[in-house]
Amino acid sequence: MSSLQRHFLRRVVQGVGRERKSRWGLITERKMANVVNDGGDSTEEIVNGAVGGGGGVEDVYGEDFATEEQFLTPWAVSIASGYNLMRDPRHNKGTAFTEKERDAHYLRGLLPPAIFTQELQEKRLMHNLRQFEVPLQRYMAMMDLQERNERLFYKLLIDNVEELLPVVYTPTVGEACQKYGSIFRRPQGLYISLKEKGKILEVLKNWPERNIQVIVVTDGERILGLGDLGCQCLPITIDVGTNNEKLLNDEFYIGLKQRRATGQEYAELLEEFMTAVKQNYGEKVLVQFEDFANHNAFDLLEKYTRSHLVFNDDIQGTASVVLAGLIAALKLVGGTLADHKFLFLGAGEAGTGIAELIALEISKQTKAPVEETRKKIWLVDSKGLIVSSRKESLQHFKKPWAHDHEPVKNLLDAVKAIKPTVLIGSSGAGRTFTKEVVEAMASFNEVKLPSSYKPKSFCLDKPLILALSNPTSQSECTAEEAYTWSQGRAIFASGSPFDPVEYNGTLMVPGQANNAYIFPGFGLGLIMSGAIRVHDDLLLAASEALAVQVEDEHFKKGLIYPPFTNIRKISANIAAKVADKAYQLGLASRLPRPKDLVKHAESCMYSPLYRTYR
């Protein structure tokens, strides 16, 4: 029985003996409570002392007799059985209900006679999905399945993750967010708008589940590389309005049709939300900030990191997955991180977040102060290379990256001036890694190392190019462009998936620097250790745990990330390393510590297999 049903039944039992009179008859709550029995009978309503149903459909709301002006009370009490069971996505198994279950739960005649295994259901659905030529149609079909049968949805996704991840994640999810108002069917999360100011705790209590461990929240202002999409995504949406003119003029837009709230009004709403979350779900609930605009993302993370268990996926998750790829790539290009020079196109959440974590990792490896290791990292924003002469006009999160150098106005000139060995795009601006830029990157071949390093020098004939912006249309370059323009020498990874490319008879396989490598395992590690705060060392541990799972067979294909088919194993290992570091740092509250953290992580994972019902 769900928490919502338990909550409703508790209210009914507490009201035993009370009677309510209505114009269509007497409703006796005592009798209603007594009818709900262990046999699982589906009890909709008791009207005039009789159970609804019998020989026909009972008018439980009095709609047949009421006029349009009269108010109705939508009473409903049920235990998952019969027709209701089939419409409960958590428990529905569709044609997989056994003969015994069909008898025990009043399903006879409600299903066709054939009984399918979950595997056969999965095979049929994958066949149907592959008939769709438009990715958005596949997305909608997957969402329909989730609303009908959750376990089958997740089994489908787990068993076919490489094929279906681009459908439910980037790049298709970008189009789904853009068109969400038109394809909207039923809400799957919470919507907290300015209308709920002063009532947020009450709104959270409307959610039927009580044991909440992770919350993903957005204000919709910076979705992927698509900008302000308002109230059109994620489990909890903080709707403060939108500045997107197209949405404001869209009759199907589902959010507040007003300009975005800012300043004190915005801050007060977020403060009320964060306070209510801790009050309702406890100290150890993880709040993952997602797709907030730069000007709010950094401030929120800085403000709440000391009082709440918070994690910003765009800043910290992206940084961790990119750092993992860089650590792994060292086996292909040689040297240490400190031997390389990094240039970023994009100095927002992702760019500065990645840069800071790289600097922290180099500092950890070399024992040099992080202020010193930052000097190996350069950033380009919309106004050019970030240099000291611009420092006074820079946003606070860009200032640590303002180094001494003459002004440079564009990326190509910055590449020629800095001569980076690693080029990273996080700008959200498509096709900015031009042929000239990639050719310039490929021309910087040799890097001299300290004499203490053996061998004394190495030849960097493999420029590392990461085009991270999502969705595919916003990628700084394609895999084919990177390989072709670098004459097949580039090591390439992107934020959105690209197909393998054949170059001069060699099949080049691009990697995907996907945040989904990190945030599931990272979150699980925090939960299973009972961590109370997120520390930078936990992010470094996650990066290192991901990097070591890239094997020789993957490197031979040019990959710097392991195949996504192994994501559950990958996540279990990341969770174990994160939990281990949390215990080392004294941040863990779940005691005693499990002996085998990997096995413990695996035991905590969701299983999509069907359950057997009594």
UniProtKB/TrEMBL annotation:
Malic enzyme NAD-binding domain boundaries: 315-583
Q: Which residues bind a divalent metal cation?
A: E290, D291, D314
Q: What is this protein called?
A: Malic enzyme
Q: How is the cofactor bound?
A: Divalent metal cations. Prefers magnesium or manganese.
Q: For (S)-malate, which residues are the binding ones?
A: R222, N470, N514
Q: Name one GO biological process term.
A: malate metabolic process
Transmembrane stretches, start-end: none
Q: Name one GO molecular function term.
A: metal ion binding
Q: Which SMART domains match?
A: malic, Malic_M
Per its UniProt record, the required cofactor names are:
Mg(2+); Mn(2+)
